[in-house]
Specification:
With about 350 residues, the protein is α/β, with parallel strands linked by helices. It contains 12 helices and 11 strands. It starts with a strand and ends with a helix.
């Protein structure tokens, strides 16, 4: 199983000191985090995309990842996610092909749609159109990246006539994963185009996600697609320290600070912050390296996935503390979980 890290560049005050870095300092921390992740041996460095909030300073992952590409040479540079439903797919095709070239073919795009209301209001889109926009824009993006010239007509943007986007991808095949939650629309979209998936697994109990992982593999098998290519990913909020007691003592205030005032997805209701429930049987992972290994193993038993993105840098945590947690993951967690095989690999050998 590959282990990566994911950040949204969330900008929060330290709950212990009240210190808050500037936006430019926060972006610099994100770039330095990628340099450190590559040096430590993480497989992916993933940057999220949020718009119009006060907490998250990354609205253009392609710009941030271009800066990271200039400072790194081997680590996969990913988006988590690129809001293809909300962006013009022609501009997405151009921007991310440029990034793929600048990085020497290290791009992986996780393609999704915003769960928040603001982008739809500001970009003059309706929430009800989200699934249709995601499908139409992703399908057009795939054509723009695989066909020499595209003539196309759809519902949400002006028609195209013999359009050839420039520049072209460095990679031969479009480096796209589909993001998904609890609904089947995105699963069908991914399988229809033979694409891997990353599921948003940070907000609900781990058992609640089993059905969508299984649906993806069932639909994949029904299509007769190669089992080895049915790749899946997941994500978790994570903190690790030398001992479990230290990890929980350090992280409790930072994690509660992260939850306070967080913008909620459409239709979600705020609930009480229950740290013990979240880090025990819940979605978060917090503890010693051994405990983190154990929980990652249990999640892998549930989901059978290939990739796990760890959200360690959630904002408000001093950069040195984040760096130490990443070092512990690299030295004592990654070697223990690297050999966990996915269910797609098992099926391929069955």
């Amino acid at each position: 199983m590959d282990i990566g890290t994911i950040t949204f560049g969330t900008l929060l005050s330290d709950p212990h000191t009240g210190h808050r870095v500037s936006q430019s300092e926060r972006l610099a921390e994100v770039v330095e985090g990628a340099v450190l992740a590559e040096r430590l041996g993480f497989s992916w460095y993933t940057v999220g995309e949020h718009h119009f909030g006060e907490r998250d300073v990354i609205s253009s992952p392609q710009v941030v990842l271009a800066a990271i590409a200039a400072r790194t040479s081997t680590i996969t540079l990913a988006t988590g996610t690129t809001l293809v439903a909300n962006r013009d797919p022609v501009l997405v095709a151009e921007d991310y092909a440029t990034l793929d070239l600048l990085s020497g073919g290290r791009l992986q795009m996780i393609a999704g749609a915003s769960f928040f209301e603001d982008p739809y209001a500001v970009f003059d889109q309706t929430l009800e159109s989200r699934p249709a926009r995601k499908r139409e824009n992703l399908e057009l993006l795939l054509r723009l990246w695989t066909e020499d010239q595209v003539t196309w007509q759809g519902e949400f943007r002006p028609a195209l006539s013999d359009v050839r986007v420039q520049p072209r991808l460095h990679q031969a095949a479009p480096p796209i994963w589909v993001s998904g939650g609890s609904k089947p629309d995105s699963v069908h979209l991914a399988v229809d185009h033979g694409l891997p998936m990353v599921f948003g697994t940070t907000a609900r109990p781990p058992e609640s996600h089993v059905a969508v992982f299984e649906l993806y593999r069932e639909l994949w098998a029904q299509r007769g697609l190669p089992a080895r290519q049915a790749r899946t990913g997941a994500a978790s909020h994570v903190f690790v320290a030398d001992t479990t007691a230290q990890a929980r003592s350090q992280w409790r205030d930072y994690y509660e600070n992260y939850f306070k005032g967080a913008k909620l997805p459409v239709g979600a209701r705020p609930g009480p912050f229950d740290f013990e429930a979240l880090v025990g049987p819940g979605s978060a992972i917090c503890g010693s390296p051994a405990e983190v290994v154990d929980k990652l193993g249990r999640l892998h038993e549930l989901w059978g996935h290939d990739l796990h993105l760890l959200s360690i840098d959630i904002g408000g945590i001093p950069h040195g503390v984040v760096a130490h947690a990443m070092e512990l993951v690299a030295n004592e967690v990654i070697p223990q979980v690297a050999d966990l095989g996915s269910r797609s690999e098992a099926a391929a050998h069955a």
